[in-house]
Write a structure and sequence with these properties.
alpha/beta; 23% helix; 21% strand; 300 residues; 6 helices; 6-stranded mixed sheet; 10 strands; single chain; Rossmann fold
C-alpha cells in the first residue's frame, strides 16, 4: 500500500500580520440581522477582548471564526486562511472553547477527555500526556483530573474546556465566555495561561459579557452591540495600528439566540445534568465517541 501524501491546501494562506481579520462581515439568523458589516483585527501574538451583553452576537462571531457557521457576506481570515474556502485549514489552526458544557464527554474523566481530543487531533501519545499534565497543572485541575467530568463543578468544567482549546498548541485560540462560573483562583489561572501562551506567539480572542478582570492583560479591547463592533481603550498591540471598528448605536442589543448565557462569576456549583461532546477545539460534531484505536471511556 502506498504511503498517503500530506494534503496540499487548495488555496495558500494570505501573508498577514493579523491572526484574525474580519472585513465587512454580515450574518443573519432566522431572518434577524446579528452581525452588521463588522470589522475586527487581532494582530498575531496578541490578546484581544470583546465585551458584549447576552444576545449581542458574541457567540455568533466566535462560531463564524471557527467555521461552524458561514458568514453571509464579507471576508473572514483566521491565521491567514479564509473561513469559507479553507475551513479545514482554519480548523487545524485554531483551538476553541465555546460557552457550552456539552463540549466535553461527561462519563469519562478530565484526563481522558484531553487524551481523546488529542487523539482526534492526531497528536502522538507522549505529546498528549505531556501537554495534558502541563495544562491541568496550569489550570489547577490536577487534583480532580481523574474524576468523572459529571462530578466536576461548573467552574472546573469551564477550565477543562479551556485546556482542550490549548491542547494542540494552536496558532489562534477563541474563548467564548471562559470565565462563566469561575471563582477567583480559576479566573487567574485562565488569565495566566492565556497571557503565557500569547507571550509565546499565540493569537487569542476572548469574548465575555464582563471583561474587567482580563482588561489589564489585553492588548486591545472591543465592544459589540446592536450587531456592530468598535474599539474601546488604547491599542497596546505591536505598532498601535489596531482596528478602528464600526461605531454602534447605544441601544439594547439584538437577541441573536446564541446558546450559553453567562452565569455568575464565582459560582462553582456542580451541575448533574447529562452532556455530550460538541464542537470545540477540533470542532467535532455531537454523537458517539470517535474510534481512536483504544478504549477511553463510556459515551456520556
Amino acid at each position: 500500500m502506498s504511503r498517503r501524501l500530506p494534503r496540499k491546501p487548495k488555496y495558500a494562506s494570505v501573508p498577514t500580520d493579523y491572526g484574525i481579520e474580519v472585513r465587512s462581515m454580515t450574518k443573519a439568523l432566522r431572518g434577524r440581522l446579528i452581525l452588521d458589516r463588522v470589522d475586527l483585527e487581532v494582530r498575531r501574538g496578541t490578546l484581544a477582548v470583546l465585551e458584549g451583553s447576552n444576545g449581542a452576537g458574541k457567540t455568533t462571531l466566535i462560531r463564524s471564526l471557527a467555521t461552524v457557521v458561514a458568514p453571509d457576506s464579507g471576508t473572514v481570515l483566521v491565521n491567514g486562511y479564509d473561513v469559507v474556502r479553507q475551513s479545514l485549514d482554519v480548523r487545524r489552526s485554531i483551538g476553541v472553547s465555546f460557552a457550552n458544557e456539552r463540549s466535553l464527554y461527561w462519563r469519562i474523566n478530565a484526563f481522558e477527555n484531553l487524551e481523546l481530543f488529542g487523539k482526534i487531533a492526531g497528536l502522538a501519545k507522549p505529546a498528549i500526556a505531556e501537554r495534558s499534565v502541563d495544562l491541568l497543572e496550569q489550570l489547577r485541575l490536577m487534583d480532580v483530573s481523574r474524576l468523572q467530568v459529571a462530578r466536576l463543578s461548573t467552574g472546573q468544567r469551564q477550565r477543562l474546556m479551556v485546556a482542550r482549546a490549548f491542547l494542540t498548541d494552536p496558532a489562534v485560540v477563541l474563548l467564548d465566555e471562559p470565565f462563566r462560573g469561575i471563582d477567583g483562583e480559576g479566573l487567574h489561572s485562565i488569565i495566566d495561561l492565556v497571557t503565557d501562551r500569547v507571550g509565546h506567539g499565540t493569537t487569542a480572542l476572548i469574548v465575555a459579557p464582563l471583561i474587567d478582570a482580563i482588561v489589564p492583560a489585553a492588548d486591545r479591547t472591543y465592544r459589540i452591540q446592536d450587531g456592530r463592533i468598535w474599539p474601546t481603550g488604547a491599542d497596546r498591540s505591536a505598532g498601535g495600528q489596531g482596528d478602528h471598528g464600526n461605531p454602534g448605536d447605544q441601544g439594547n442589543p439584538s437577541d441573536d439566540g446564541d446558546p450559553g448565557a453567562a452565569g455568575n462569576p464565582g459560582d462553582e456549583r456542580s451541575q448533574g445534568a447529562d452532556g455530550s461532546a460538541a464542537t470545540a477545539g477540533a470542532v467535532e460534531p455531537e454523537g458517539r465517541l470517535p474510534q481512536t484505536g483504544g478504549r477511553v471511556g463510556e459515551h456520556p
